[in-house]
Amino acid sequence: MRTPAASVAAKETSILPPVYPVILCGGSGARLWPASRPWRPKPFLRLVGPRSGFQAAVLRAQPLATGGMVVVGGAVHAGLIGSQLAEIGFRASVLLEPAGRDTAAAIAAAAAWVAARAPDAILAILPADHHIPDAEAFAEALRQTLAAADGGAIVTLGVRPASASSAYGYIRPAAAGTAVTPIAAFVEKPLARVAAALLAEGALWNSGTFVAAARTLLTELARWAPQVAERAQAAVDGATPAGEATLLGAAFVQAPKIAFDRAVMEQTAHGAVLPVDFAWSDLGAWDAVLAASGDGVGPGATVTGGANVLARAAPGMRLAVVGVSNIAVVAEADAVLVCALDQSQAVRDLAAEQGPPARYASLAVAAGAYDVWLRTSALPLWATVGVDPATGGFREALTWAGVPDDPRRRARVQARQAFVFASAAAEGVPGPWLATARAGMDFYLRHARRPDGLFAATLDLAGVQGDAAAPLYDHAFILLALAGLRRADPADEASLAEATAVRARLMAFRHPAGGFRETGLHPFQANAPMHLFEAVLAWEAADGGAAWSGLADEIAGLALARFIDPASGALREVFDADWQALTGEAGLIEPGHQFEWAWLLERWGRSRGDAAARAAARRLFAAGRRGFDPQRGVVANALWDDLSLRDPAARLWPQTEHLKAALVLGEDVAALEAANGLAVYLDTPARGVWRERMRPDGGFLDEPAPATSLYHLYLAIRELTRAVGDPC
Questions:
Q1: What are the beta bridge partners of residue 302?
Q2: Is 610 helix (H, G, I), strand (E, B) or coil?
Q3: I need a labelling partner for 596 at 20 to 30 A (CA). Which of 289, 381, 659, 670 fits?
Q4: 198 by DSSP, 3-state: which?
Q5: Residue 229 belongs to what H/E stretch?
Q6: What are phi and psi of 432, to 5 degrees?
Q7: Which domains does the chain have, with CATH numbers?
Q8: CB 595 within 8 Å of CB 660
Q9: Mean pLDDT, 10 residues at a time, the chain of 728 residues
C-alpha cells in the first residue's frame, strides 16, 4: 500500500486560487461505430439528450470556472469545437493538438498554458464524453477536492460501482470513507470475476477526472514523464494563433503517446481519490448508451415486438426493428451496425476493420467507369463550356452545375489543358481534341510572351498580361504542353522549336549549387523541378534528343541526393540555398508529392536500369501511404516531418497521384483503394466536373472545380485504363 501523501489533508483556507476546468475532447470512441468516426468522434455526438457529450461537459463545468475554461482537442476537430461552443453560447480558450498524443501530453500542455497565466491555479481535468445527469452533485464533489488539490494532491473522483463491470478501470482507496483519501492502487479493466472481488473490497470505478494545482501537475509530469513535460512545454512556447483558437507547436507531436493514469497516477505519491455516489457512465459502448438514455429509440426509428432495443437512424433515414430483443441497430448513411447488446465491447475491433464503402470491386470495373466518364463527360464539357469561344483560351473553373467561373487566364491552366487535349488526340480518344489544344496554346503563347522570350504567369480574359512574373513551375507545364502537341503531331516542328528555345531560356534559373531556382518566397523547392522532370521525360519520349535525357538525369540525381531524406525515405518540400531541407513549420511532407515523384522515378529508373531510383520510388510510396485515411478512403493533404498527420483535409489531386503511383509500382490493393477514394470527388450534379477539397469530416467545400485538376485526372485515368487493357 502506498504511503499516504501529507497533501491529502484538506487545506484550511477560505480563499482558494482560480479554478480552470480543462475539457479533454480527444479520443475516437471506436466502440460507438458507426456513429463515432475519426472526423466526428464520440465527444461531439448527441448520445443522450439534445447536447453532445462535449457541450454537456462544458455546461457542467461552467459554475466551477472561476479562472477560465480551457478546451484541448485535435486540430482536425477545430470546426466541431467552435461550432458546438457557439451553439451553447460559450467561449473558452481552445488549445489545438497538431496530432493526438493521449491524455498525458494534453494535460501537460493545458497545465503549462494555465501556469503561464495563473501560476497558483487549480485545474479540473474533465473528459468530454461522460454522462453525469446530476450536474449539481458533480460540481459539489469537485468543490470538495479543491482544498486538497491546493495542498498538493492530485485528486480523482472514484465512482461507487453500480455493478461488477469489466468495462471500467478500478481504484483501491487506501482507507474507507467519503473524504479525500490516498490511492492504494489502480487496476486496469479486469475480468468479470476479478471485478466482482474488487466490488466486494470497496474499490471504485476510475472516472478519469483529475483535480490538481498546475504546479503539482507540472512537477509530477517532469518527474515521471519528463519527455512528455518537455515536449508539451515546447509546444506551448511555440504555439500560434489559429483563428479564435491556439495551435500548439510542432514539438507536441514528438511527445510520447501515453495516458496520464499510466504516466503519472500509477507512480506518484500525491494521488488521492474522493468516493462519489452520483450516476455516472463513460458511454463506452452501445449498451451503456441504452442504459443511460432509458429509451433507446431515436428519431427516424421504430421498434415493435421486442424489448431492450437501441435503434438509431441518421437524419433522413428510416429504420424499423421488429420482433427482436437485446440488440443495437445503428444506421448511418454509409454503414449499418447490428449488434447483440452483450457484445457491444467487441464493436471496437470491428470498427478498426471498416473503411468507406467500395464503389468498384476491381480495377477493371473502375477503369471502365472512369474511361466512360473521361470520354463522354469530362473531355467534351471542358472542350466546350470550358473554352472561351471568343479567344480559344481555357476557362479557369466550372461550377458543380457546369457553369463557367472564369476570372483570368493563368499559364498553368492554359498549358495543362492544352496538354490534356493534345494527349487525348495522341492516344486516339475520339474527338476534336488536337484543334482544341492548339487553339488554347496559340492564344496563350501569342499574348503571354515577354521581351526576354519567357512567358507571363497571368493574362486577363482578352489576353493582356497581368502578372508578368515567369515562374519555373509554369514553364515546366509549357514544355509539357508542347511535348503533348509534338506527340499528337510528330510533324509539328513549331512545337519542337518553341520547346528548345524555352529549355535554353530556363538556364537563367540555374543555381550554383545545382538544380534551379524558382521565383517567389521559396526559391529552393522540389515541386517546380518535379514538373520540369515530368516535361523533360515527355520530350525525351517525343523527340529523343540527348539534351532532354541529360537534363532528366540531372534532375533525378538532385532528387535522389538532396530532395529525399535518406533516413525516412520521404521527399522534403522546401530547402535553403545549399539544398538542405528546412524543418519546423516549413518541414511539411505532402503525400501527393511523394506519389508524383514515385511515379516519375520508377519510370526513369526503369528506362535507365537504375535500381536505386526504383527503390527510392517504393520508399516514397510508403511515405505517402502514411497519409492514407482508411475511414474516408482518401489521402490527406500534409504530414509533419515525422510522418504524423498535419493537415487532415484532402484535395483531389493527391488521390490521382496515389492511383498513378500504386499502378506503376504494381500495388494493386492500394490502387483499388485509390480508385474508390477518388470516385466520391466526381459525384457532382453535372457530370465531368469534380469536388476539389474534402473537409476532415468527409464533406466538401462548396467551390468551383478548378481546370488544373483535369491534368491530374487525365493522367490517372489513362494510367488505369492502360494497366487493365486500355478500354479506349
A1: 320
A2: coil
A3: 381
A4: helix
A5: helix 226-237
A6: -85, 45
A7: 18-281 (3.90.550.10), 289-353 (no CATH)
A8: yes
A9: 46 74 86 84 93 96 96 85 93 89 96 97 96 96 96 95 86 82 88 85 92 98 97 95 87 89 94 94 92 89 93 91 95 88 83 66 93 97 97 96 95 98 97 98 97 96 93 97 97 95 94 91 93 97 90 97 94 94 86 98 97 95 92 91 88 98 94 95 94 88 96 97 76
H helices of 26-71, in order, are 53-61
Q: What is the pLDDT of residue 728?
A: 45
Cα gap 111→282, rounded to integer Å: 24
Can you tell me the distance from the alpha carbon of 48 to that of 52, in angstroms, rounded to the nearest whole number? Answer: 8
Instruction: Tell which residue, 686, 668, 166, has the closest CA to residue 367.
Output: 668
Question: Does the predicted TM-score (pTM) go above 0.70?
Answer: no
Residues 18, 66: contact at Cβ < 8 Å? yes
Grid cell, residue 24, equals: 479533454
> For the segment 476-508, what is each residue's pLDDT rounded down to a tens digit?
999 999 999 999 999 999 999 999 999 999 998
Q: Which three cell numbers stand for residue 727?
A: 478500354
DSSP assignment of 265-282 = ITT-S-EEEEEE-S--B-
| Closest to 149 measured CA to CA, from 256, 60, 263, 64 | 64
Report the amino acid identity of residue 260.
Answer: F
What would the grid cell of residue 619 be? Answer: 520508399
Q: How do strand 93-97 and strand 70-74 relate by DSSP bridges? A: parallel
The helix or strand, by DSSP H or E, that contains position 321, with its residue range, turns out to be strand 319-322
- Predicted confidence at residue 354, as pLDDT, reads 59
